[in-house]
Structures are given as C-alpha cells and as structure tokens.
Amino acid sequence: MSEPVYIVGLDIGTTKIACIVGEKDSNGKIKILGHGKAESTGVKRGMVINIEETVNAIKLAVAQASEQSKIEIKSVNVGIAGHHIKSLQNRGMLIRENANTVITDEELYNLRNNMYRIGTSPGEEIINVIPQEYFVDGETTGNKTPRGMVGNKIEANFHIIVGQSAAVRNILTCINLAGLEMDYMFLEPIASASAVLCEDEKEAGVAIVDIGGGTTDIAVFYDSIICHTAVIPFGGNIITDDIRQGCSILKKQAEEIKVRFGSAVAMENSEDEVVSIPGIHGRPAKEISFKNLSYIIQARLEEIFDLVKFEIEKVNSVHKLATGIVLTGGGSMMKHIAQLAEFKTGMEVRLGNPNESLAKDKEELSCPMYSTGIGLVLEGFAKYENDINRVASLNKEIKKETVSQVQENDTEKELPEKPAKKRGFDIRGIITNFSNRTGLFRQEDID
Questions:
Q1: Across the chain, how many H-helices and E-strands are there?
Q2: Which runs of consecutive H residues, i.e. helices, occur in 262-365?
Q3: Are the beta carbons of 12 and 38 closer than 8 angstroms?
Q4: What is the pTM of this model?
Q5: Exposed, middle or buried, 167 (CB in 10 Å: 0-12/13-18/19+)?
Q6: β-bridge partners, 166
Q7: Per CATH, which fold does 197-366 belong to?
Q8: For the segment 29-78, what is each residue's pLDDT rounded down to a tens digit?
Q9: Cβ atoms < 10 Å from Cβ of 137
Q10: Closest by alpha carbon to 186, among 9, 57, 308, 42?
C-alpha cells in the first residue's frame, strides 16, 4: 500500500498568512487535516516589505497547522500576487525528430519549458507558464493535450505570468528562513479559481474576482482556457483606511465597524441606525450612521469594480462570459456586494465558497477568505500528479528503448557466422589440375 501524500498550501496575504494541510480521498476531494492562521504585518499589497515579521507569521501559521494535522511540514506550495504581476501570450513550436512515433509527455514538457527562455524586462522573471491551446501539424486539439497523437510539428499558445524578481526572491527568502522549502509557486487568482469554479463555468466563460486585503486579483476563463489575468492594487485595506480618515477614528476601530456593520449599498441602510465609537483618551464618543459608513465603502468598491470591468472587457469583446463573475476572498464577505457588482458591471454575479472542493464541509474553512489557501492545495496535487505521470511516461519510454536494444543485441549474437569469401584466383589449384592432365610439372615444383 502506497504512503499517503500530503500537500501544504501557504497563502501569504496582506492581512493574514494561512497554512492548510490536505490530502485527497478516494473521490478526489480534499480532506483538510489541519490549518493555521497568523496576522500578516510584513506584507503590503501582496508584496513582502518586512522579512522578519513575515517569517515570524509563517512560523506561527505553520506550527498551528502542523500541530492540528500531526504532520511535520517541510515544504509548501505558495501563492504570489501584487500589482507587479502581469501576463502575456506567446506561441511555441517543436519540430519532432520522428513524425511516425506518438507524442510523449516529455515532448510537451520541453515545449512548455522553452517558454521560460523568452526575454523579459530587466528585474522581471517568468513565474508560471500555462498551456492554452495545442496544435498538431496546424490542426487544433483545443485545450486537450495531444499526447498519443502522431505528427511532425507541435505548436501551442501559452499564457505566461511575469513578476518582479525581487518580489519572488523575498517570498522564497521568507520561506527558507522559516525552515521550509518551496515546492511550487502559483498565481493566487488561478489557485482561487481551482477552489471555487466548476468546469462548466470555465467552459461557458467566467471571471473570478478575488478581493483580498491588499489587492483584487482577476482571472478570466473561456472554453476551459485561461484568457487573462490581472492584479488591481486595491483591496479591503484601502476601504478601512477610507473609513479611518473619513470618520477620524483608529484603524482597528475602522476595521471592526467595517466588518460588523458595513454594507456595499448605502441605500440598504437607514439614517437612524448608528454605531457609537469610544473617544480617544477621555474624548467624547463619536456616532457614525450605518448609511454614512456604507457611502464610504460603496464609493471605494465602485472604483474597484470599474477597474474589474475594464480588465474583463479586454477579453469580453471577443468572448462573451456567459456565467458572469464569481466573487471570492475576504473582501467578498461584505453585505450586498454582489448587488453592487452586478450594477457596476452589468454581469451576473455569485459568491464563491471553496466548500465544493472539500471532502467534508468544515465551516471555518468554507468561507471565501480561505479560497486561495485551499486552491493552493488543489493546484499542488494537480502539479504533483502531473509530474508523477510525466516521470512514469519517461520511464516507460526508457524501458521500451532498453528492451529494443537488448533484442537487437540478442539477434546479432544468434546469427551464424558467414564463411569468409575468397578473393582472386586459386593459382595452386589450377596448376595442380593442369599437371595431373599433362605431367609437365612435378609436385615439389608446385609446392
């Protein structure tokens, strides 16, 4: 019986750092074995700005997850976001050495790996390469891999994620200083999509909008292919700052009333509903109406959704997104946010929870704020299984070549030796035959 495989997802966010340990059950669902959460104070807008504080938060979250799961955590799958992230499209081509043999996983891997060699701007590097569509001798196979087909030329369109090298190095440094190793790095909106989107939505066309603390991450899918990714440098924290400045209160007070009493649509609140905020150092308390609070929240969310609509329209003019928008992330838990999103974008909107991916619905983890963490576990399993299949396919090819070589060697050994061919004339034989007939030569003369 094979040993169980555990995958760990580490979500390094602006407001929290979450660590989730999971394994797959027989139905392909994720069973959460343990999780941990720590306040994130060393990250701003998705980028690490304080190594020490981030390392301490990672250690705390990992220790909690390890204690719950009873598993020693050594490596993690980590997400990356931030306004430095950008995406581009590129096409790759591979001319095969033998067009009569079937296309292997190794050839597809080499085709994808070649994309990491394309040029980027100084200070940037390629984080991930995602295949979109394959072609064999000019004929498309869609998003299905052409494994097992035959052909002379393989081509593919790729979606390439690019980010700042410094941001990547800072994350890697934090993980290493926390005593961990990084298995894989994934773009956070793609991880969130794995947790909250179904295959039907990806095929019909959908945009996932992950509203985090520091950024709002977007990924657009159509025909089960990722078409566009983007990161907007605004999230829940900027709404908290707006409330703090607009109401002249402390940041922790602004965050608390935002979570408890905030609404994305001001008209849904009454002027009579108020919240009293204690004054600072003996000063009189302040009363803030729910409606005024919601006006502040709504103004900032409208700006965010205008930017979301702008990003979606980059592909929506070509591909109509039939299933609209799926909101997730901690910021999507704001009351009436789906209504505002529908009004600003003119698209159908639903809230996305990661509970559909879980083997057992854990109430604490089924809320949108854990979508990225659970998605990192899902993406980690997908990457792990893909690597296992590629290695198995490669071993199969090596074994096949080895057996063929052994058979050729055995065949050569079994062939009988051919007598050496005589070259020229046998003079001695001719003279002997002539002497027997004529008696002109003696035997000793012949010898």
A1: 12, 18
A2: 290-316, 337-345
A3: no
A4: 0.84
A5: buried
A6: none
A7: Nucleotidyltransferase; domain 5 (3.30.420)
A8: 888 999 999 999 999 988 999 999 999 999 999 999 999 999 999 999 99
A9: 14
A10: 9
